[in-house]
Amino acid sequence: MPRPRTHDNLPGRERACIVGVAVRGREQPWELEDSLDELAALAGAANARVVERVTQTLQRPSRTYLGSGRLEQVAEMARSGRFDVVLFDDELGATQQRVLENALEIKVIDRTALILDVFARRARTREGKLQVELAQAEYLLPRLAGQWSHLERLGGGIGTRGPGETQIETDRRLIRNKLSRIKKELARVRAQRAQQRQQRERSEILNISLAGYTNAGKSALFNRLTAADVRAADQLFSTLDPTTRRVHLPSGVSAVLSDTVGFVRKLPPVLVEAFQTTLEELHQADLLLHVVDAGSRHGAEQARVVDDVLEGMGLASMPRILVLNKLDLVGDSPDTEVPPHLAGIVDAAERWTATSATHDWGIEALRRAIVEGLGVAAQAGV
User: Fold this and answer.
1) Fold of 205-379
2) For residue 287, is it left (φ>0), alpha (ψ between -120 and 50) or beta?
3) Strands 85-88 and 107-109, how do they pair?
4) Which of 238, 288, 289, 373 suits a disulfide with 233, CB 3.0-4.6 Å?
């Protein structure tokens, strides 16, 4: 039977083995163990329990991801029934994934498929579900051939033409039709959002967007600034669906604040493409609030990931405020000093402030900074 390519929504928690490699000479801003820690957090968000962790340092990339000896070690553990799924810390090519599935004889999930699974669990609105569905279909399309690899074992000649080939083409046609349908529905959503933005522009309402690494506390900060009740939780991608609320500023001016999907390291391109409808809010903003988790020792690296994504979206010059959130994880008062490892991104920021959304620290200072930032943006004609 063909091996499934997607993550099953089983009632119980799957046992997972997480696997990561480092390649000598390749620049890696994150330590391998730290990267696997994040992969383990993603696994937990997908209702899996990590029971094994495998790492390896290679001289050069391998078509089997791991070296032959380490791959056999993982295969032996899989045969012993110690886990149900192997999670790889990078996106696997279609051929690479088939090779690994044949070698391990167990379900193989790469980082992209895992993130897609988490997104599918978190999406609540019709728009959010459509965007996830689009990303899943885009991811699956080039991997369809392996779904029918059991037919390849028949060899060439009589009996191999027809069923297998027809099934692959049928699946491709169905997915392409699905992609077309989803894109049409998202186009309608995009048109509705465009009308809403035009109404805001006609009323000269200023737009502010939150951007940041996942679990930086954007939703909690959004709630503090707007008195909304958006779901906020200490977990990766606790909310995916775009939310917009009015915020009242000390100057007496009202603005619209939008909360967008969080970013993550190795963010799959199919997700960036699928979430264009949501991310368009960033393009329409007069001011960005770049929220950073001040309590994370990887805060600086996470900030650079977000900067890279924003630059890739053509938003490098967008006026912004750096917001060091979760200050309560650093000290016990609003006057807590900035952690030394964040000094570099603070020095590089034109304007910044520190907050704790859960303790209401620095919220009024942030409101004043927003007024100042919007004033600068208006003078610049943004």
Assistant:
1) Rossmann fold (3.40.50)
2) beta
3) parallel
4) 238
